[in-house]
Specification:
24 helices; 719 residues; Rossmann fold; 19% strand; OB fold (Dihydrolipoamide Acetyltransferase, E2P); alpha/beta
Length: 719
C-alpha cells in the first residue's frame, strides 16, 4: 500500500498543507527548503526576531535537570531540563519539559541545532516550544560529518513544526510510492550533464550530506524545468507545423496600389520582416509568428501588408484587439494608411480597393447583424474587432489570416475560437507584442513561435526629452510644468496628462501607519481647469468607465484640436496616434511599470517633432521607485528598458501566474540560465522527434502538466 499524507498528518494539518499548495506526497517531496544552515557555523543570537520561528545553531555550555513539584493527578513529578548555549558572543537558555534524556546526550562542547519561537524572558533570549533537530531519529550525537552537512530550513507552514515536517519528509523519502521517483529526465541526458537521478536529488535536498550534493540537486531542478518548458513549446510548434492552411502568396492590385501610395519608405527592418511573413504565408502549413518591436517601429504597416496579401489571395483577414479603444485606433490607423484605397461601401468597392470594417461589442445590434452577414457572404476583406469576432454568430466566408494584437491578453481558448472559423483549414496567425521582448524571454516564453523583430524606427531616433521629477522634493515644479504645457498648446500642439486611477483614493502605509492621498484623473482635470497657468485651455477627460461613443467623441476632438489637453488613464497606452501631441505629463509615475511608462511616452512625438515627457512622483528622490523612473528618463531604447525591467523585477513577474495561467516555475532564471534553456531545447527537439506523445516518458509528461497546466497560455506581461 502506497504512503499517503494522511498517514503522517492530521486532518487539520492537511488543511494547512493545502494552503501551501501541498496536496500529495509528491507535492511534499518537492516542498524544498528555502535555505540551508551548516551546523558547523554558529548563529548570532543578536539578530533573531522576537516572536518568530527560528533555527539556531550553537555550542552547549551546560545542561541541568531538576524535578518540579508534582501536581494533583500526575503520576510522576515533571522534569525541567535547562540547556545553556552560546554563539560566541551571547548566551541563550532553553528549557525542555519532561525530556531528561537530553542530560546524557547534550554534553558541553557539542554543537547543536534547535528550533523554536524566539522569546525574551527576564532579559535573556530563549526559545518557546523548543525542539532539538538531531539529524536522524536514532542519532544520539552529532558526528564530524554531521557538522559539515547543510541543514534544511523550510518556509513556515502554519500549525506544523519544522521538525515534524522534516521528519515526515525523511520517512516519505524511504517509503513513498515508486511512481513518485519516476524520473522525468531521460537517462542519457542525466549522464551527459552529470545530474543525479530523481530519488537521489530529492534526498540531497531534504537530507544533504555535503554542500556539493545539495548544489548539484539544485542544478537538476533548473534542467527539469527547462526541459519541461522547452518540450511543451517544441511540441506546440510541431503541432502547428502539422496544421493545413491555405497558401497566401498573391501580390495583386491591392498590395501594389498600397505600396505605390505609401508616403514614406519602409525601413530595411520592415522589408526583412515582411519577407519573413510572406514566406510563411505562401506555405500550406499554418504560420505562427510573433512580431515585436519598439514603440513606433511600424508594426501596423507590416501587419497591413500581410493582410493585403491575404485579400489579394482571395481570403479574408481579421485583426483582434483586447479593447474597443485599441480596436478603434487600429481601424483608424488602417483607414489612414489606405486613404482613398479604402472602400466606402462593400457594394461600391473597385477591384483595387479594400473593404474594411470595425466590429465591437457596443455596436448597435442592427449594425452588427448586417456586418455579420457581410462577413459571412465575403463582402468584407479585413475586419478589426474585439472579443465580438469570436462569438458564435460571427462567421467568415474564407478566413485566411488572423492578426492578434496584445496577444498576452487572450487565452488559448479565445484564440482557438477565432482560428476554428476558417473551416477545413486553419488561418495563418500573426501575433503582435506592443513592447520589445528581450531575447532570453523570447527564447523561453515564445519558443513555439517564429519571432520577427523590428529593430529600426521609420523616422529615425525619436526626439523625446524625458524628465523624472519628485514633487515631494520640488513641489513648485508642477506650476512650471503647467506653464510649459500652455506654451506647447500656443504652438498649436497638444498634450496628454496621465494618472493611474479614475477617482481619488486613500492608501494606508502599513509600516508607518501614514495615510496617503492619491488623486484620480477626474480631480486632476478639475485642478488643471483652475490652474492660472492653464487659463483658457480646453481640457478633456477620458477613462475606461466612459461609454464608447463618448470616448470616441473625446478622442476625435483631441485629434482635430478641439481639445488642447487630454487627461486620461492608461486607455491611451497603446494604439493611440495623435501626431499633434508633443507633451506628456504622467502623475504617480512610480505606480507604473517600466514598459508601461515607455508605451505611454510613445504617444508623443509620433510625427518626428521634438517632444517632452515629465514623469512625476510624490515620493522623495531617495525612496525606492525613483531609480526606476530615472531609468525610463535615461533612454528611449525600448530593448534596453526591457532588459532593465527583467533584471529589476525578476523572473517572478515574467514567468508568473499572470503570464502563464498558473505556472509554477520556481528554479529557472531567464537571466542567469539562458544557456541551460538553449541546451535544453536541443534535448527537447530530439525527444519530440522520436516520441511526440512522450509515451516512453510519462514522468516528463506529468512534470509538464504540473508546472505548465493544460489551460496555460504563453503569456508575457506587456505592462
Amino acid at each position: 500500500m502506497s504512503a499517503r499524507l494522511d498517514d503522517y498528518f492530521t486532518k487539520r494539518d492537511l488543511g494547512f498543507l493545502r494552503k501551501r499548495g501541498i496536496e500529495s506526497v509528491g507535492d511534499l517531496l518537492h516542498f524544498f527548503p528555502r535555505r540551508f544552515l551548516v551546523p558547523g557555523e554558529k548563529t548570532p543570537f543578536g539578530g533573531l526576531p522576537i516572536g518568530e520561528t527560528a533555527i539556531v545553531q550553537a555550542e552547549v555550555l551546560s545542561v541541568d535537570t531538576r524535578m518540579l513539584e508534582r501536581r494533583t493527578g500526575q503520576k510522576r513529578p515533571p522534569s525541567l531540563t535547562t540547556v545553556l548555549i552560546n554563539d560566541g558572543a551571547m548566551t541563550m537558555k532553553i528549557a525542555f519539559f519532561n525530556q531528561q534524556w537530553l542530560q546524557q546526550q547534550l554534553t558541553p562542547g557539542l554543537v547543536v541545532v534547535f528550533a523554536g519561537t524566539v522569546e525574551e524572558f527576564r532579559g535573556q533570549l530563549t526559545l518557546k516550544s523548543p525542539v532539538w533537530l538531531n539529524r536522524d531519529e536514532h542519532d544520539e550525537t552529532w558526528t564530524p560529518e554531521d557538522l559539515s552537512s547543510p541543514f534544511p530550513v523550510y518556509s513556515r507552514v502554519k500549525g506544523i513544526a519544522q521538525s515534524r515536517l522534516w521528519k515526515a519528509i525523511k520517512v516519505l523519502l524511504d517509503v513513498a510510492d515508486p511512481v513518485e521517483f519516476e524520473d522525468p529526465l531521460p537517462t542519457g541526458m542525466r549522464e551527459q550533464l552529470d545530474l543525479p537521478d530523481l530519488r537521489t536529488a530529492l534526498g540531497d535536498m531534504h537530507r544533504p550530506r555535503t554542500q556539493a550534493d545539495m548544489e548539484r540537486a539544485q542544478q537538476r531542478w533548473k534542467w527539469e524545468e527547462a526541459l519541461a518548458l522547452q518540450t511543451e513549446l517544441v511540441s506546440r510548434k510541431a503541432d502547428y507545423e502539422q496544421l493545413s492552411a491555405t497558401p497566401l502568396f498573391d501580390v495583386g492590385a491591392r498590395s501594389r496600389r498600397f505600396e505605390a501610395n505609401l508616403p514614406f519608405a519602409l525601413t530595411a527592418s520592415q522589408v526583412r520582416v515582411g519577407e519573413e511573413i510572406s514566406r510563411d504565408l505562401a506555405r500550406s502549413t499554418a504560420m505562427h509568428r510573433l512580431l515585436h518591436g519598439d514603440v513606433g517601429s511600424g508594426k501596423t504597416v507590416v501587419a497591413l501588408r500581410a493582410m493585403l496579401t491575404a485579400v489579394d489571395s482571395g481570403a479574408q483577414a481579421a485583426m483582434l484587439a483586447p479593447t474597443e479603444v485599441l480596436a478603434t485606433q487600429h481601424f483608424r490607423s488602417i483607414e489612414g494608411l489606405l486613404g482613398e484605397q479604402m472602400a466606402l461601401s462593400p457594394l461600391l468597392a473597385e477591384d483595387d480597393q479594400v473593404r474594411v470594417a470595425l466590429m465591437t461589442g457596443s455596436m448597435p445590434a442592427r449594425e452588427r447583424r448586417q456586418l455579420a452577414l457581410d462577413l459571412a457572404a465575403g463582402q468584407i476583406d479585413i475586419v478589426v474587432g474585439t472579443h465580438a469576432l469570436m462569438s458564435e454568430t460571427t462567421m467568415f466566408a474564407e478566413l485566411g489570416l488572423i492578426v492578434v494584437d496584445e496577444q498576452h491578453r487572450f487565452g488559448v481558448e479565445q484564440r482557438e475560437a477565432l482560428r476554428s472559423k476558417a473551416g477545413l483549414t486553419v488561418p495563418h496567425t500573426l501575433v503582435m507584442s506592443a513592447t520589445p521582448i528581450p531575447r532570453t524571454v523570447a527564447m523561453t516564453v515564445f519558443a513555439d513561435l517564429d519571432v520577427s523583430t523590428l529593430d529600426e524606427m521609420p523616422a529615425g531616433p525619436k526626439d523625446v526629452t524625458t524628465h523624472a521629477v519628485s514633487l515631494a522634493d520640488h513641489p513648485a515644479w508642477l506650476s512650471r510644468i503647467h506653464q510649459l504645457l500652455a506654451d506647447t498648446v500656443r504652438r498649436g500642439e497638444g498634450g496628454f496628462v496621465v494618472a493611474p486611477r479614475i477617482e481619488n483614493t486613500e492608501v494606508e502605509d502599513l509600516e508607518s501607519g501614514r495615510v496617503e492621498q492619491f488623486i484620480g484623473v477626474e480631480e486632476i482635470r478639475e485642478r488643471m481647469t483652475r490652474a492660472p497657468e492653464l487659463a483658457g485651455l480646453s481640457i478633456g477627460l477620458m477613462h475606461g468607465k466612459m461609454p464608447m461613443a463618448e470616448k470616441d467623441r473625446v478622442m476625435n476632438d483631441f485629434l482635430t484640436g478641439e481639445l488642447d489637453v487630454l487627461v486620461a488613464t492608461t486607455v491611451i497606452e497603446v494604439g493611440i496616434d495623435v501626431p499633434r501631441a508633443t507633451m506628456m505629463i504622467i502623475h504617480e509615475a512610480d505606480r507604473f511599470g517600466v514598459a508601461q511608462l515607455h508605451q505611454l511616452r510613445g504617444r508623443v512625438g509620433r510625427d518626428g517633432r521634438a517632444a517632452t515627457c515629465f514623469l512625476l512622483t510624490n515620493r522623495p528622490e531617495e525612496e525606492p521607485g525613483f531609480e526606476r523612473i530615472q531609468a525610463v528618463a535615461g533612454t528611449l531604447d525600448g530593448f534596453v528598458l526591457a532588459e532593465y525591467d527583467l533584471d529589476s523585477r525578476g523572473e517572478g513577474d515574467v514567468l508568473g501566474a499572470s503570464q502563464w495561467g498558473g505556472s509554477s516555475l520556481r528554479h529557472l532564471s531567464v537571466l542567469r540560465d539562458a544557456a541551460v534553456i538553449e541546451h535544453a531545447r536541443s534535448f527537447a527537439e530530439k525527444i519530440v522527434e522520436v516520441d511526440p506523445d512522450l509515451s516512453s516518458l510519462p514522468a516528463l509528461r506529468r512534470l509538464i502538466r504540473r508546472i505548465l497546466p493544460a489551460e496555460a497560455a504563453h503569456f508575457i506581461e506587456a505592462s
